[in-house]
Structures are given as C-alpha cells and as structure tokens.
Amino acid sequence: MPQFALRIVMLGLVFTPSIFSGVQAQDSRKSSTREVIYGHKDGLAMTFDYFEPSVKPNGSAVVFIVSGGWFSKYAPPEQTKFLLNPFLNAGYKGFAIRHGSSPKYSIKEAVEDLRLAIRTIRHDAKDYGIDPEHIGMFGMSAGGHLTLMLATTGDDGDSQMQSSVSQTSSRIAAGVALVPPSDLTGYIWSTPNLDRQYRQFPGLDMSKKEAEAVSPLNFVTKDDAPCLIISGGKDTLVPPEQGRWIHEKMDKAGVESNYIVYEKSGHGLERDMASAVTETLNWFNKHVK
C-alpha cells in the first residue's frame, strides 16, 4: 500500500462516503445529534457523539471507536454520522467515542478511556432509551484492536468505588473488528529489524511487557463477547494471521466468533468495505438487537 494511503487508513480517515456505496447509503437526515462529555483528562474533556435514528429505535446501540493508529481525532458530527448511517437506518442508537490520542496518551490509557465511555453509556442507558445489555462495538485497524480489548477484558465494575459510573459494567454485547492486530508484541519499536512503517505509530513505542498487557490475544476467556473479525488477505500492515489467531483462540475457548478474509483486499478493505459493513450489521442484528 502506498505510504499516503497507509496514513489515511491509520489516521482513521479510511471511512469516506464512497466506501458505503450501496450499503444503506441513505442519510438519516431527521436523526438528532449531540456531543456528550464522559470524562476529563489533564483538564480536557473526553467526548463522544450521540446519534438518534430517524426510524423507530430498536432499543439497542452501536458504538464506533474513532481511532486509527491509536490517534483519535475530532471530526464534525455529520462526517462521523455517515459511517453510522447503516446502523441508524436499522434502528440502532449510535455513539462515536474518541479516546485520549497518541502520542500524548498510551494505548493502555486509550483502553481505559473506552471502558469509562462504555460505563457511562450503560449507566445512562435509560436516558438514551437503550437496553444496557445491548451495546455493540466496532472499529477498524487500531479501532478494531481496541474493540477486541473491550470484548476480551470487559468487567462488571468495582462495587468498592464511590462513583456509580465506576460501579457499572464495561462489558459489550458483541464486537466487530476490521483488520485488527491482536498481538502487538511483534510490532513494538524494540523489535529487531522492525519494518519502518510501524515507526509512524508512537503508541508502539513501549516494552514487550506493556505490549502483552494490551494484546487481546492474551485475554481470551469463555465469557468474552461474541466477535466478528474481518481481515484483508493482502494486508501488509496488519497481516491476516492477526485476525485468524484470535478467532482460533476464541473458538477453542468456546466464544462465538466468525472470521472473514477478503483475499483481494489490503488494509483498507477497498472494494470489500461495503460487504464488511453488511456483515457488521448482520452480526449486530444477531447478537445485539
């Protein structure tokens, strides 16, 4: 993949209107949108966008992780809303979560931010008109990795904490991970003969022990959320075996999962993106709705 295209993918800008051609592309124009503060870090607000569908809500939610290369950037809600439209048009409430961004914040901190966001959404589920046990999550590349982290490390909250949000579960009902790394230990900067393309992601500047702690492959247990994993057969940034490894481990642990490889696609899934979105919606209809 050319470096320019690679950077577009990893900065989370891979989701463009053309990708969704033919996939419920109609715009939910009547849906309402608002930004919600779910926490603070270093005096700055951490936020997610909330979208209501124009059709009758089905009582469930779909969460998109705004992350590429573990960078999490703000974009106008109408841009984020476009990639949630297939789910809004199916009656799901939509959320687009931003986490503390690399390089200032680590991957571990990004995981913690997302847990807090899910706790906040579940804690306030009644206000959003959703069932707190029907929350699905998806993301691409780094967002897919973070989805797998939430799917494999969700907890029931800490009853010893004073905050009612902290006492709330961070579990998700189902996850969809597009072109995700599942084991980061081979991509950290200390790796001998590391390919230069990984040097552009400062989140990978960590020790092997730290990488193990944020590699979802290490945390698969039978109580994990069911996951759909999609890889590109020609992906040279996140090779397809990264998806296959965690699918096989989930299968062995008794976790429901499915693994799809688009053999002709690279890291951006290219012409197969429309199919991937359809598969994602079908997965949520089965496990979240």
Structural features, described:
With 289 residues, this protein is α/β, with parallel strands linked by helices. The protein has a single domain, classed as Rossmann fold, CATH 3.40.50.1820. The protein is 30% helix and 18% strand. It is built from 8 helices and 8 strands; from the N terminus they run αβββαβααβαβαβαβα. The chain has helices at residues 3-10, 77-88, 107-123, 125-128, 142-153, 208-213, 241-253, 273-287, and strands spanning 33-41, 44-51, 61-66, 93-98, 135-140, 174-178, 227-232, 257-262. Strands 1-2-4-3-5-6-7-8 form an 8-stranded mixed sheet, sandwiched between helices. Strand 6 (174-178), helix 6 (208-213) and strand 7 (227-232) form a beta-alpha-beta unit. The longest helix has 17 residues, at 107-123. It is globular and about 50 Å long. The termini are far apart. The relative contact order is 0.15.
* CATH T-level fold name: Rossmann fold
- Approximately how much helix is present in the residues? 25-40%
Mean pLDDT: 91
Q: Which strand order spans the largest sheet, edge to edge or round the barrel? A: 1-2-4-3-5-6-7-8
Category by helix and strand content: alpha/beta
Unreliable spans: 1-29
Task: Specify the CATH homologous superfamily.
Answer: Alpha/Beta hydrolase fold, catalytic domain
- Count of distinct structural domains: 1
Largest sheet: 8 strands, mixed
**Radius of gyration (Å):** 18 Å
What gap, in angstroms, lies between the N and C termini? 36 Å
